[in-house]
Write a structure and sequence with these properties.
The structure is a single chain. The protein is built from four helices and 27 strands. By secondary structure, the chain is mainly β. It has one domain (3-378): Tachylectin-2, Chain A. Strands 15, 16, 17, 18, 19 and 20 form a six-stranded antiparallel beta sheet that branches. Strands 1-27-26-25 form a four-stranded antiparallel beta sheet. It is globular, with a radius of gyration of 19 Å.
Amino acid sequence: MTRFRSALAPLAIALIGLTAAPHPALAAWQEQPATAAASCAQPVRGVTTDARLTSLFTNYGNDNSRLDDWTGADGTYSLRLPSGQELWVFSDTFLGQVNPDGSRPPVVEEGGTTVFLNNSFAVERGGRLSTIHDGTARKPTAVMPPRDANHWFWAGDATLASGIVEVTYQEYERYGTGAWDWRWHRNVVARFLPGRLEQPISVHDLPSGHAVAWASGMLKDGGYTYVYGVEDLGSAKYMHLARVRGQSLLGDWEFRTAGGTWSPNEADSARMMTGVANEYSVSKVGSGYVLITHDTTVALNPNIVAYFSCSPAGPFTGKQHVYTTPETSGNIFTYNAHAHPEVDGDGLVVSYNVNSFVNTDHYHDVSIYRPRFLDVSFG
């Protein structure tokens, strides 16, 4: 089984979530009446396709002027660089050519010419994209390199700290030969110079002792960087929350407890709510905060939903339907919707990923494995 099949295909299944009832260990304060949170809720007023971003990635992905650049990926985090350029952060990524019929060659590991990396960047400059990878044009490698053939990194959210780009990654490891013989191992943060994004200048461990993958999303607010995570049990996914004073993730972490306080001990991190995806976001909208996520309370759910709070620490209530992804059908599914509040759009820009349970679908149709973008308005 190739690395492509051992990484991309199981990830597709792992990120979906199955039907699950709320766990009795959810934080007690989260289950109390939340009239204050409801007062900050705003109705979803409208949702449209973001035509600019959709065409930007479609045209770039189909362009064969270079053959070591992006033709599809998932993850799709973003960060505004000090230069004003937009950094797009991806996990599993295809590089190479697109055929006239909209197909791509198989990956190199299967005898084709398409390069498959577990992470990459793209930088948007003046409405144009360019791919960032390490290695060479003839032999590209990931910007966050694995330690060996049995480990790889998928990206989480990113932040800017005193001009340094900090990107979170979750390391996964393979422990056998079966399709499901892999698991989350640890969280790290890689620091990059904005002008030299091909490889990190340093990599640092993040809290990893209690099976929470940090950071599904991040938010800077009130002098803190809030770091949202997920405890993924397959059939249930739980939100966890930490914070760091200031901008850098290298500071001292505090974890939200079941009593609604903060503790320096990761073991005190509480399950805040269920139904979130592996990637989600919390953004400031008006006087409140909106949580955007795929709804994982139902298996293979095509629905993107929003919750609201008056605080970045929740509770998040007032669940509203945002969008039903039209791509979901047969082998095709969607996952990991989250917002990009720093990206210009007609409302809050939200992306989601599209994938297939059948690997060869990614060869026959390059449009499957590319992000979609929405503009969501509230009020």
